[in-house]
Design goal:
Blueprint: E1 34-35, H1 39-43, H2 45-56, E2 59-64, E3 68-73, H3 76-84, E4 89-90, H4 109-112, H5 123-138, H6 142-160, E5 165-167, H7 168-173, H8 175-184, H9 192-206, H10 213-233, H11 239-244, H12 252-283, H13 295-308, E6 315-320, E7 324-326, E8 329-331, E9 336-339, H14 341-345, H15 377-395, E10 400-401, E11 423-425
Parallel strand pairs: 1-2, 3-9
Antiparallel strand pairs: 2-3, 4-6, 5-11, 6-9, 7-8, 10-11
Helix pairs in contact: 6-8, 6-15, 8-12, 9-10, 9-12, 10-12, 12-13, 12-15, 13-15
Length: 431
């Protein structure tokens, strides 16, 4: 399927609902395949992961939107194996044996429709494209980024500090990493174009009912094409310019596609990392004593969230290159595997005593293997998240939830883990 702007390629895109022989739905696990949807799953996914693990082991048959079959990889060792063996589980989604069952308006098409971006490249081509991103991100000064985030944070806080209450998701959590990321990429921090770009990125990655993720993705591509054109004409000290002027000689379209990956990976997951950390700090009595700007407690909370409440719950996906075995399951060539990052982080085989040692950093929240988040992306995300949390607590040391913790609800998403709203109250601050 092709569109004007960013394109999704598939061998076929007709809405035939049948599943080929050998896929999870036609296997012996057919009767117990579970839909990755529903309010129970969205609000308490760990309960589903536990039940799936108890019934199926480390690899479970699941149904995606439209009852499209896939495998959910739940085990830490199994996720690590999949991400470490590209020769068996590759990223090019054109291998999928389900394309005949996928309609052109399928909600997950922005995730799995093949695009000419670094996300779907393999081998030497992936190393070339990822190398450009890595070097472009290495040019970001982490101390300068922290200062920029502090400035952005203070500007946002000033807008609600005198009111004594606010809804942090809309007034702070999503806005801070958005402004920081677009500034890193050389776009205006404020402005209607920037606001629309971020709205469309969110829709393309995590559409709500009634939204069109494919159309949103097309608009994102159009905006970034203009940015790349502008940087070709007048490069500056930003990520986009470093990609444009890199010796690898990426085309404009390659840069556009890879910028989409960089911005999307930096903005929404980082925002939900901030959100989930603030929720932990405001609801868990272990952090109550030191919450007021305490750097040690904030650092512990950030890392604990990556283990127990990771922003990216699941990632789709990998596609089997040939018939193989995984977790006692027979995986057929072309089967889709969803990486259950949240389930893997809490694998009881990893933590047999039910204690998750949040002080270490061996979690899979940034994935692993050659296709993991490129260095130094996790470090930059940590700078943004840590600065956002610490600056808020510094300016509002008595901030507290404006509702009972049980009243907080999670956004209805299989893929991302973040609150719908985070209402708080605090002593009004005169600026």
């Amino acid at each position: 399927m092709s569109t004007v702007g960013p394109s999704y390629e598939s061998p076929s895109a007709s809405p035939a609902p049948s599943a080929p022989s050998g896929c999870p739905v036609r296997s012996g696990a057919a009767a117990t395949a579970v839909r990755l949807s529903g309010m129970t799953y969205q609000q308490t996914p760990m309960e589903l992961y536990r039940s799936l693990r108890a019934e199926h082991g480390a690899v479970a048959p699941v149904l995606l939107d439209g009852d499209v079959p896939a495998w959910l990889v739940l085990g830490y060792a199994e996720v690590s194996y999949v991400t470490g063996h590209d020769e068996l589980f590759a990223r090019d989604s054109r291998r999928w044996n389900q394309w005949d069952a996928i309609p052109p308006d399928w909600p997950l098409l922005p995730f799995v429709g093949h695009q000419p971006s670094v996300l779907f490249t393999e081998g030497d081509e992936h190393r070339r494209r990822a190398g450009v991103i890595t070097e472009a991100l290495e040019g970001v000064d982490q101390f300068e980024l922290a200062r920029d985030c502090q400035v952005i944070a203070r500007q946002l806080i000033a807008e609600f500090a005198g009111s004594g209450r606010t809804e942090l998701m809309s007034s702070y959590v999503h806005l801070l990493p958005m402004r920081a990321v677009v500034q890193m990429c050389g776009m205006p921090v404020k402005g209607e174009d920037t606001r629309r770009l971020v709205d469309d990125l969110r829709t393309s990655l995590d559409a709500e009912e009634g939204e069109d993720p494919v159309a949103a993705y097309v608009r994102v591509g159009d905006r970034l094409r203009q940015l790349v054109k502008d940087k070709r004409a007048a490069p500056g000290p930003d990520v986009t310019s470093r990609m444009v002027t890199h010796g690898a000689g990426l085309t404009d379209e390659e840069i556009v596609q890879d910028l989409i990956s960089v911005i999307a990976a930096a903005q929404q997951p980082t925002a939900n990392w901030i959100c989930n950390t603030l929720r932990l700090l405001l609801t868990d009595e272990r952090f109550a004593v030191n919450v007021s700007g305490g750097r040690l407690s904030v650092g512990e909370a950030l890392n604990e969230v990556l283990w127990l409440d990771t922003p990216t719950q699941n990632f789709i996906g990998r596609w089997a290159v040939r018939d193989t075995q995984l977790g006692g399951r027979h995986i057929r060539a072309g089967d889709c595997l969803v990486l259950g990052l949240a389930a893997a982080n809490t694998d009881p085989l990893l933590w047999p005593d039910a204690y998750v040692g949040a002080e270490n950093a061996a979690h899979l929240s940034f994935s692993s293997g050659e296709h993991r988040c490129p260095y130094p992306a996790p470090l930059l995300a940590d700078v943004m998240a840590r600065t956002a949390v610490e600056t808020l607590l510094e300016h509002m040391p008595d901030v507290m939830l404006a509702v009972e913790p049980s009243e907080l609800t999670w956004r209805p998403s299989v893929w991302m883990r973040g609150l719908a709203e985070l209402p708080v109250r605090f002593s009004p601050v005169v600026q």
